[in-house]
Write a structure and sequence with these properties.
It is built from 18 helices and 20 strands. It is α/β, with parallel strands linked by helices and 539 residues long.
Length: 539
Amino acid sequence: MSSKLPFVFTENKKPYAVVMKNDWTRATDIFLNYIEKITGGRLTVSAVEDVHPFVFFKEADHGDSGFCYKLEGKNLIFEAKTEQAAVYAVYDFLERIIGCRYYTKTVEYVPFDANLSVLFDDYAFTPILEFRRVYYNEYFDKTFAEKHKMSASNDDWGFFDHSFDKLVPVAEYYDEHPEYFAYFNGGRQKEFTQICCTNPDVFDIAVKNLKKYMEGKPNAKYWSVSSNDSGYHCLCDECKKLDDREEAPMGSLLTFVNKVAEQFPDKVISTLAYQYSTKAPKHMKPADNVQIMLCNIESNRGTPFGECQQPGTVNNRQAMLDWKEICGNLFLWDYCIQFHNLVNPFPNLRVIPKNIRYFVENNVRSLFSQGNREEGGEFSELRGYLLAKMMWDPYQDETKVMEEFVNGYYKQAAPFILDYINIMHDAMEAGGGLLNIFGEPQDAAETFMTEELFFQYSQLFDAAEEATALDPEALFRVKTARLPLYYTGVCLEYDTKENRKNMLAKFADQARKSGLVKVEEWKITVDNFVTDKMAELCE
């Protein structure tokens, strides 16, 4: 039996514990504010220890994001290397030990206990992933992202991705110096182009401009020196010679990036392994301060990355395995939604945890998962929550994570929402496990979104709405979760024309109330979609 004594915070709302004054004021304030919400009593801060149990924040190396909290004698101790890690420790303690839950930036659960005390075993955790970013709109909010121990921004970065046009702008140089740009299709190109990585003047200009950018953001550690967002690359004789030697277009690109990195030994120079540059070079290696940012954009999202035999996934998996052999600084850019149809059902919730485990087991130490940059999207709240939890600890029970969220967020409707998720995932897997991030609703018409299944899903949502009829907040969340079903029903022309008009009207109403902006990334707005579909239905 443990010899530890319970740590008592309050007795009948009256503060009993005291917080020792320290330099980590942000972590301390978060701790004090939540304990006050939980107990109704505000703990005091003191610079002098007395007979009361004290809360101490102490500096100790548990990695950049890791921490420890423990009971020592009558005191509660938080240890971390930095205040940022101490903030993570506080939120983790409130969640694991006290029972708080952070579902969205506006919905959380905070228990109440006027006589709060805790007793627990020492807990220490250092995450495998050093950089963790869930790129969902919800997680752009720093406070909410911190609650899940995620980065809310790329503040440590000067450039995060495509940067060649910033370093050697086409608009500035092409007319007088077309030789600075990529040779393909029989000439030096201005549109959809890259730089010529073997031109010495290009190198000088890029380094000069990069220095200027660094002067404007001196604290940024990471700087992307990366191809433009185009599938073309330079095929001039000099570039081709390097690419042929390395048996990959990364030959000329990485040669250029390594040379740039030599000029900035105190920075990390990141470069995209993306589309044409995904494949690792045959002989050369990235410099010690070069980071490879591998993008698996061509991969199937319906089957685990480590198992899928679809050609795009096979190629991306082999690229990861090859890069991990030569790169100690592997960053993965992953994609987790259907970008052409942001509210279309996309049953990849079972695949996400398995993929994250595969990534970390193959030397990925930084993970960026791209979701919807706009407000909303299919199961954006659940998918973001799952991503954050699994990035922090890839080996926790993902089923428990999902069920915990669904039960807490959808409340009385949880059994029906879980049935909907499981039936859809089962059908997707039985149909071959194919999900394309640039796919269309029609892709699922014979697998997980047949007309028969559509009506089964609709019945589940009818039951979910009925179960939450007396809880307006939960009902609103259920109606928002139903938007993808209305969307796909209209797109696939299920049910009668009059019923589809009704679905479209319900979609429009709830989409606007929930703040949904677009149904396709960058392009089609909710209003555009509703107007066009209603015109079709009224023909």
